[in-house]
Amino acid sequence: MRKISIFTIFYQSIYSFKDIAKFRFLGIGQTMQYVFFLVLLYFLPTLFKNILTDGNSSFLLPGFDAGSKAIMLPVFIISTYILNAGILFLKISILAGAALLLGKLLKRKLPYRQSWRLTAFSITFPSLFFGLIPLFNIDIPFATLIDFAIALFFIYGSISKIPRPKNKM
């Protein structure tokens, strides 16, 4: 598949099952780059709300003076970003296993590497949605289950757009 802009992938992954199914052929490097971009989009609203809107970082780093906070805040932000990236990669890996099962149920040929890539693009909408929720101070009960359900819906829709393998005689 040709080199495609990360912003185009992001936009099309929000709504198009057919395009998500096509993106499973992208290289792993571009898929990883997209996942790190998605982590950034997921992480920025919370960071914006906690630090910039509230204007107070003392709850993040209690017990530090102003000079220490200037040093520790970037370390805290970077380590939180890395932690969020790890969690998102774990989520993609777990959902990719579920995508393998869905692929078998729908009688589609889907190796794990394509399943992982398809899942990485399928979680765009739920990640964006649940990343923006903190800005509105909304508490959603069972948010993790709803997140997984929406992701599975997108995975199912994308797998159903994969053509069935032709029967050999």
Automatic annotation (TrEMBL):
Domain of life of the source: Bacteria
Membrane-crossing segments per the record: 34-52, 72-103, 115-136, 142-159
Keyword check for Flavoprotein: no
Pfam families for this protein: DUF1189 (PF06691)
UniProt keyword annotations, A-Z: Membrane, Transmembrane, Transmembrane helix
InterPro entries: DUF1189
Claim: Nucleus is one of the keywords in the record: no
Identification of the protein by name: DUF1189 family protein
Organism of origin: Lederbergia citrea
High-level lineage: Bacteria, Bacillati, Bacillota, Bacilli, Bacillales
